[in-house]
Structures are given as C-alpha cells and as structure tokens.
Amino acid sequence: MTRSTEFHPAWASPPGETVRELAAKRRLRANDLAKALGLPHEGLSKLVSGELAITTARAKRLAEVVGASERFWLAREGQYRRDLQALQNDRKQWVSSLPFADMARYGWIDAATSTDEKFRQALEFFEVSSVDEWRDAWLSDQAGLTAYRTSPIFSAQSASVAAWLRQGELTAEKLPVSTWSRKRFERLLPSLKPLTRIHEPAEFIPKLQEQCAACGVAVVIVRAPKGCPASGATRVKGDTAILQLSGRYLRDDSFWFTFFHEAGHLVLHEDRLFLEWPSRRELNSHEEDEANKFAGEALIPPSEEVALRALPHEYRSIMRFAKKLSISPGIVVGQLQHRGLVRLDKLNFLKKRYSWTEQA
After folding, report:
1. Which fold has domain 15-96?
2. Could you tell me the residue ranges of all domains in the chain?
3. What confidence tens digit (pLDDT) does each residue in 7-40 have?
4. Beta-carbon neighbour count of residue 90 at 10 Å?
C-alpha cells in the first residue's frame, strides 16, 4: 500500500546558524565577527537570519574568519535557498488545495487574497504550526483519515474533507454536551423518530441536537465545501461523540437514513472515524452493511417488515403506516424504493425537501 505522506521539511536552516556556531567556538564576539567579514552590525544580523545571501566573496571571507571551506559555504547557501523554495512551494500547494472560497463564504475564515494570509489563516483554522504538522494530524498513519486513503476519490480531495471535518469539530465545541454514553444514546434513538415528521429543519434540528447532547453526542450540520463529497461522519474526541452531517441530502428520507446510519456507527463500532460519501464503492465493508441495517431497523422495525411489503402503493395507506411508526411518509417511500417494491420515480411527492436557508 502506498503511504499517504512523504517527508516535507517544515523549515529551512540558513547558513547563518552555522556561522554563529563556528564563531562561538572561536570566541568571536558579534562586533568582531562583523568587522572581520566587512559587514555592518545590521548586515551580520541579516546574514545570520538568511536575509543576506552568501556570495563567492563572502564565502571566501567566512572560510578565513570562522573556518570551513569556500566551497562548503557556497554549498550551504545553495541548499538553504533550495529548501526555502521547496518550503514556499509546499505552502502554496497546500493553500491551493484548500477550499478557501467556500470556507470564507460559509464564515469559517475571513476572506483573503494573498497566499501568505491564506497560509496564516489555514494554520490558525487547523490549530497547527506547519504543513507537516497538518499532515501528521490529518493524513498520517495515526490520523483518522488513514482508512480512506486507498480511495482515489478521497486522495484528490483530502484537504477539503479535512476542512469539513475540522469545521465540524469547531462547531461541536460550541454545543453544551454531556459525557458520551453509548448506552444512553442507543436508548434515546427510538424516541427521535417523531422528529422525522417535522417539516422545518429550523424546528427539528435544535430538538435533535438537545436530546443527543444529553447523551454526549454533538450533532452538527456543516455544509460541505467544494471538493468534499462527504454526506456524514462520526468520531469520538475526548468525552464527546461527534455526529456530523453535510446536509448534502435535501430530502427527509435520505437525511434521516444518513443520521441513523451514523448513529449506528457510534453504537456498534469502534470510536474511530467513519466517513461516508454517495459514490463510494471501494470502501464498502461489513461495518457499513451493519450501519445500514441498523438504520433501516431503527426506522422500520423488523416486526413491521411484512406489513411494509404488503402495503398498498397509494398515499393514504403510506400516510397511515408512517403515522403508526411515528416516521415521515417520505421515509416509508424511501424504504419501499430501496427494497425495489416501488419505482424510484413514484410517490416522491410524499418526501419532504429541505434547504440550507431553512437549516441556517
């Protein structure tokens, strides 16, 4: 398997650091060193910091004053400039991979035009000090996204997915959430089904968040930026479980099935990251099948399967069946379509449609 990261130095060591070390060994004070090199005091500071380049003439003087060879100093200077350029290129590539336009439009960061300002904001957003630290946090073997690196879809969109997940963490931090309890959350889930019958997200989302928060689950809905195909994700950070939805699905049947699917991961599986997106095929697993089964049975219990299959395919019967199970009629239609009992183009008028303006 190809590793998801390579070594990219997050620093470039100027030759001036070596100058200072060798000068210290010779007990040369700064003023004496500057004078010997034919530099003003400010010039020595610039040489040490790398702002002032080592020319052939300066390399010769350095060899005479602090030691090493002229060739050594020129090679040291060349390596520093190459490292500096590589570091700058690495920063530019990282910045260009992030969905800054959407991040600014959604209010995650301030709008910025220069690469330097975008770089500063990105470090602050992810709370890292370098691109290397970001890779370690999000793309290394120890990071939660490792399980998805085999997907060619994901590898090209990792920065956007990471930004979406990070915003989910920041949003979750603002919610008053109790300590995560798997047992309490599992017991809670059946009582959430009546929320599926509420049409306005602005009404049911706060109720959903409040009830789940009492079990230690932060339910956050974060719009996916460009390049992020995710529909949902779950993970546990510290004492809080995060159940994150992108709102990509604007119909009630898809939205609520995704919610209960993610809830299934929290109840059934380890506390690592689970990430979902619609077109994912190569990452199907036994755990995904279990979460799908969990969601289906949470919405329509197995004891109602015979009744579901015998249900007349007309809206009055579907409305009565949905009311009996305390779920929306759209969910019943979606499950009938999933089982192949109803064509995908039939009865869709019973599905409720959501919009982001309603969820804001």
Report:
1. 434 Repressor (Amino-terminal Domain) (1.10.260)
2. 15-96, 176-359
3. 445 567 888 889 889 989 999 898 888 888 888 8
4. 16
